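in:
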């Protein structure tokens, strides 16, 4: 019996599933409903939301909204502040331990956009003192060869974050490659265990996906009220939409997800205090869709023809910026809003991974990260418990 209790207590503490969420029979249990594929059938309709102004979300005290000017959220300034904080922490680690966090980037092929993005990451690493590693492979590389390089970085103690630049050539299974990255080095935050913990009440992932993480920083560093707010996420991708919705839920917002199959999307968005637009549709969200005083975070990056530009195009978001600025209390521009934050949060995740290794803080994300004595204790407790129950049943006491 003691062994059974011991095993149960270990499970209660270490199991990555929060047992408190399993009981669906409690009359006091509440649910948040969102429009996920294959789900929501029979779910109650959202309660009507207030159509009054959301201006109370944004303080009139300029000292509390240091990165908002003329209703525009300056993502570049927020990112610069975060990178300064990261540089200070990296310097501390170097002075105390003689080591710094390291980020490895694997790029396959010669896509100019991917190469440009990798160069930006390399420069950002240098600016904050993070070591940068790079492996450039031809687009003819086999999947097994690519996996070998990922495994090499997994075992490299100087590397604390691994990023495989997407997209990959068609002959390579992206999911297999991403799954090969060690969860302790998954700075993109897309490992199933990281996403699973993000979705669970009372649990935290090792790493948060960078773009949604950046969106939340834009809100929080401007002291925008999230708790109790009605939030609408436009888009349901694994990269932005779903993680963003989970992060908002963790901050006690009431969250609705809308997507390509949503009926009357405009009326749902119009009830939102906070809008995170991540649909990948050029200026989908119009001024008329927005509630006066709302806050808009535009993740979209879309190219539109512009002959006045050297490139022949300019970048716009998923939101009509000029129109939104007339209605919203705060809105992010494109470019200069969420984009700089994505790289800043990649550096932040790399720093966190480095600190766990360098300072030996470890993690409790999975059984693989548990100390050896604890894994052995759990295994022994379960073995003894199983033997005790077997003997009890064999003795006829289990009838």
């Amino acid at each position: 019996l003691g062994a059974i209790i011991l095993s149960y207590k270990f499970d209660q503490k270490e199991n990555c599933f929060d047992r408190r969420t399993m009981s669906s029979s409690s009359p006091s249990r509440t649910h948040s409903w969102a429009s996920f594929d294959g789900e929501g059938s029979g779910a109650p309709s959202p309660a009507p939301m207030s159509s009054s102004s959301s201006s109370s979300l944004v303080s009139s005290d300029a000292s509390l909204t240091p990165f908002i000017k003329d209703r525009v959220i300056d993502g570049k300034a927020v990112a610069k502040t975060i990178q300064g904080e990261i540089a200070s922490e990296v310097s501390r680690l170097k002075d105390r331990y003689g080591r710094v966090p390291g980020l490895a980037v694997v790029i396959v092929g010669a896509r100019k956009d991917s190469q440009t993005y990798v160069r930006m990451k390399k420069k950002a690493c240098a600016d904050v003192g993070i070591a940068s590693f790079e492996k450039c492979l031809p687009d003819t590389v086999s999947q097994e060869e690519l996996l070998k390089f990922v495994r090499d970085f997994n075992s490299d103690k100087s590397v604390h974050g691994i990023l495989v630049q997407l997209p990959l050539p068609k002959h390579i299974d992206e999911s297999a490659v991403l799954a090969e990255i060690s969860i302790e080095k998954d700075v993109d935050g897309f490992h199933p265990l990281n996403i699973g913990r993000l979705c669970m009440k009372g649990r935290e992932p090792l790493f948060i996906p960078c773009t949604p993480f950046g969106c939340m920083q834009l809100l929080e560093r401007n002291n925008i009220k999230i708790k109790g707010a009605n939030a609408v996420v436009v888009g349901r991708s694994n990269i932005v939409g779903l993680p963003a919705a989970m992060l908002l839920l963790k901050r006690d917002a009431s969250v609705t997800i809308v997507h390509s199959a949503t009926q009357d999307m405009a009326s749902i968005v119009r009830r939102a205090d906070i809008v995170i637009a991540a649909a990948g549709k050029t200026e989908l969200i119009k001024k008329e869709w927005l509630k006066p005083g709302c806050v808009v975070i535009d993740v979209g990056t879309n190219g539109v023809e512009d002959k006045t530009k050297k490139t022949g195009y300019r970048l716009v978001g998923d939101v009509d910026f000029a129109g939104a600025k007339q209605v919203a209390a705060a809105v992010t521009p494109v470019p200069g809003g969420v984009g700089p934050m994505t790289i800043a949060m990649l550096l932040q995740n790399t720093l966190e991974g480095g600190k766990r290794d360098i300072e030996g803080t470890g993690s409790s994300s999975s059984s693989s990260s548990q100390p050896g004595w604890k894994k052995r204790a759990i295994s022994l407790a379960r073995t003894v418990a199983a033997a005790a129950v077997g003997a009890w049943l064999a003795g006829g006491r289990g009838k």
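note: The chain has a mean pLDDT of 83.
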